[in-house]
Amino acid sequence: MKELICLGIEGTAHTFGASIITSKGDILSDVRDMYTTKKGGIIPQDAAKHHKEISNSVIEKSLKEANKNFDDINLISFSRAPGLAPCLLATKDVAIRLAKEHKKDLIGVNHAIAHLTSGLLFTEAKDPIYIYVSGANTQILALIDKRFRILGETLDIGLGNALDKFGRGIELGFPAGPKIEELAKDGEYVELPYTVKGMDLTFSGIVTEATNKFRKDYKKEDLCFSVQETLFSMLTEVVERALAFTEKKEALLIGGVAANKRLVEMLNIMCKERGAKFYNVPLRYSGDQAVMIAWQGILEYNSGKKDSLNIDIDDSQRTDQVEVIWN
Ligand code: ATP
Ligand code: FE2
Q1: What are phi and psi of 318, to 5 degrees?
Q2: Buried (b) or exposed (e) across 251-276, using 16+ Cβ within 10 A?
Q3: Exposure winner among 37, 134, 203, 219, fewest CB in 10 A?
């Protein structure tokens, strides 16, 4: 098969990114620019404005770093779902404009699926249980019969958001995940609720209880330790059952919370005990970036997909709504 070069464009939320990669998986460039606020919240319209303002310079920089120009590019892929609608629209406009201007084929991909499939590019995993834990998302998935099936997920907030919410409650600032991890090193266990419901998880009640205990003068360190132990044990339990149920022999951790060493350790121990292999997406690629969008574009293009220039966004497309035509 002829080697392809793809320009991928990411812009579903806070990060606008452009990356150029080859169909062999060589990453030629990976440029990112993140919209940030002092308080850490995200205003969708402002993030979209940010994306519009910096898109040209990020894409130019990406081409320059890759030592390529538009003549070298075979296709353009962009994140069309799911995400914040204003951000998705801004990203789509850029991708369509460039595809028209330079007469390139265009593909719109699902951001969450790109996180999953690129996990196989960044690690040696082949057919794992996917553990996707970011700020907003917490899902345990497996590829079964051409769909990423959601085997378990949070019923309220994402694991990262749960940590951040607890962190806000005990005055740690944003993002709280790394600070909680640090404080937990000097903590001891205090009892908290443990809320696994079948294969699903809920985090809010635990966050509320831990925050209440802080007001009753429990030590920060103890609460951080206990919140981590509880939330991560719950997740590990569900992943273990997903491994047992699917008989898969690998687990792959993806998303911003994958930075947490204690979570990695727990999952590692559980996998070892079951004879499964544990993989962790390198930190550099665990959050949002455009490499995964470019890779997903190549996968879909190589299996015959091509979108029209009238393609629209879908801010709420679920991972299991997409048929896996590649592989
Ligand atoms: P997505 O759009 O994929 O849902 P996101 O922006 O919600 O992405 P990420 O950027 O993947 O989330 O991850 C951010 C989250 O990771 C934050 O909630 C942050 O607290 C958490 N996090 C970062 N480092 C650590 C750590 N060391 N321990 C625990 N949580 C962490
Ligand atoms: Fe993401």
Answers
A1: -90, 155
A2: bbbbbbbbbbeebbebbbebbeeeeb
A3: 37
Residues in contact with ligand 1 by the CB-under-6-Å rule are 13, 134-137, 160-161, 163-164, 175-178, 181, 255-257, 259-260, 287-288
How confident is the model at residue 173, as a pLDDT? Answer: 85
Distance 36 CA to ligand 1 centre (A): 14
Within-domain flag for 231: yes
Ligand 1: which residue has its CA nearest to atom 6? 135
Give, as residue ranges, everything with CB less than 5 Å from ion ligand 2: 288
**Residue 9 placed within a domain:** yes
Give residue 292's domain range: 5-115+286-321
pLDDT recorded at residue 38:
76
pLDDT digits (tens, 9 = 90+) for 202-229: 999 999 999 999 999 999 999 999 999 9
Are 39 and 109 members of one domain? yes
Stated pTM of the model? 0.96
> Who has greater pLDDT, 126 or 175?
126
Q: Mean pLDDT across the chain, nearest whole number? A: 96
Asked whether residue 135 falls in the same domain as residue 270, the answer is yes
If one counts the domains in the chain, the total is 2
Name residues whose C-beta falls within 8 Å of residue 288's C-beta, 6 or more positions apart in sequence: 10, 12, 13, 14, 15, 17, 32, 111
